[in-house]
Design goal:
CATH class: Mainly Alpha
Strand order of the largest sheet: 1-2-3
Helix content: 40-55%
Shape: globular
Largest sheet: 3 strands, antiparallel
CATH superfamily: Intergrase catalytic core
CATH topology: hpI Integrase, Chain A
Distance between the termini: 40 Å
Order of helices and strands: HHEEEHHEEHHHH
Length: 193
């Protein structure tokens, strides 16, 4: 896998992210000192914080520098804007050009913002992620069905195997109902109630 995609799947596994949450990550959402990832309006419109594995800090810092270079190039070409919801553009008019609002995994091309009409750089499209995974699975010879969500399942399973409390796992995964999290205890043979 290319380093960017390897990092993306490592974050899905190491932080328990959903695919959409991964793609929507912005520079400001990563706290390297606290080793946390902030997820703004995840599933159900809720914010949450999850862990950032120490092992991913170096590769993620490299990715942030790559994004900085893309952003500086965009500014030099008269752009440098990111895609933001119209309400945020109104509330924070300078945010569209600020580095901290840039996506961690930006698209390769700029496009017209669907609501406001300015040219900006959106996040990488989910089909690019799916293609990279499909190719890696084929090359590896794995015969089981693997999706981006498989990495989130593996995150939960590994936490439970390591002895992490099920309520903590529930919080990290952003599950409303503990029964959803308990599915993983059945996977590893710990039938808890």
């Amino acid at each position: 896998m290319q380093p960017q995609y390897k990092l993306m799947f490592s974050l899905l596994y190491g932080s328990g992210l959903r695919k959409k949450e991964l793609l929507k990550l912005r520079i400001k959402d990563i706290d390297f000192e606290a080793k946390t990832v902030f997820l703004f309006r995840g599933k159900g419109g809720k914010d949450r914080t999850t862990m950032l594995p120490k092992k991913l800090i170096g590769p993620l810092k490299t990715q942030v520098e790559k994004v900085r270079n893309i952003h500086l190039k965009d500014i030099a070409e008269g752009s440098g804007m990111t895609s933001l919801p119209p309400s945020l553009v109104i509330k924070y008019p300078n945010a569209v050009k600020e580095f901290k609002w840039q996506y961690i995994f930006p698209s390769t091309k700029r496009c017209e913002h669907p609501y406001d009409g300015y040219y900006c750089r959106h996040h990488l499209h989910s089909t690019a992620l799916a293609r990279a995974l499909k190719l890696a699975v084929r090359k590896s010879g794995v015969t089981k069905h693997v999706t981006a969500h498989t990495f989130r399942h593996s995150f939960a399973t590994q936490l439970l195997i390591s002895g992490v409390d099920i309520r903590t796992v529930q919080e990290l995964l952003d599950h409303n109902d503990l029964r959803t999290t308990q599915i993983y205890t059945h996977v590893i043979g710990q039938h808890s109630s």
